[in-house]
Every structure is written in structure tokens, then in C-alpha cells.
Amino acid sequence: MKWEARFYFGNSKDIRELPLDAKLLERCRRQAVDETAWSSIARPLESRVSYWVTDDHQLIRQTLTDPPDEQKKKILKEGKTPIYSYNQTDFVKERVAIEVQFGKYSFIAYDLFVKHLAFYVGNQIDCGIEILPMKALQSEMSSGPGYYEGALYDLVRQGRGVPAVPLVLIGVVP
Predict the structure, then answer these.
(1) End residue of a domain, out of 67, 89, 111
(2) What is the Cα–Cα distance from 35 to 24, expressed in whole angstroms?
(3) Which of 49, 92, 100, 132 is packed most tightly, with the most Cβ within 10 A?
(4) Do the bridges between strand 91-93 and strand 127-133 make them parallel or antiparallel, or are there none, so unpaired?
(5) How much is the average pLDDT of 4-27?
(6) Both 82 and 122 in a single domain?
């Protein structure tokens, strides 16, 4: 079985192909499920970034980069109601977050434009990786998930500065 991955580097103009063999993928999969290799805050293998929100956009701007306990204090001090919120990601290791998305297509945009950015703004990651099926694999799946080529189009359409977190997009084919 031949595996192929296509990598999109957000600050690059090219797409690079790298052949992967099944043994390498299995070794990567085993490492990904090894709880000693990946950080775990909320549940095994997941990592979470927590923050407080309110209905005042100016106050959110003022508290955006503060630690959660400071956000809550400042919101209360302004007489507003703090609302606890969080984002979680599949894996975090050495300041790199990985999301494996073989679910519904709508979650891809959320991962790319919300989750990775939340971890980046929260200073927990320096880079996000999104792993998606390519169209060739997606067409063989029963649930109708999104696919690499569509996510790549969405990223390119947004322009070079959006999202504001460095991303690697990985496509998997059968």
C-alpha cells in the first residue's frame, strides 16, 4: 500500500508531496496515542485552553491575552458577567497542536479559524497541524466529511495573513 501526504505551508506558495509508507504511519499513530508523548489536560490526549468571555467586545479586547483568572477579575470589576469558555484540541506536543478531522466538514473551518488560533493566542502553541482526508479518500467515506482540497482552497482564499497562526495542512489518501 502506498501512502501520500500533501503539505500546505501557510507562508509558502508551493505544495510539496512526500511519500509515506504504512510502517511510518503506524509508528506515528502509535506515538499519537502514547499518553506519555502528548500532553493531556482535559482528557487523555486532549489539551484545553480556557478563557472568560462577556457581552462587551471592548472588554474582551482588553482581556484577550490575559490569563483566565485575570480575565474573570477584570470582567467582574467592570460589572459584567463572566462566562467560562474553552477550546480543546486532539494533541499538543512541544507547542504544536494536531487536529485529526474525519468528521463533518463544518468542523474543519472551526479547527482552522478558531481552535488553532485560540491555542496560539493563549501562548500554548507555535503551530497548528490539521490532518484531513483528500477527496480520493473522502469519496470512499460514508459520512461526508470535508476534504483537504476544499480546506486548502478556503485557506488560500482568505489570504496570506489569515488565520494568524502558522498552519500545516496534511491530506491523507487511500
Answers:
(1) 89
(2) 19
(3) 132
(4) unpaired
(5) 43
(6) no
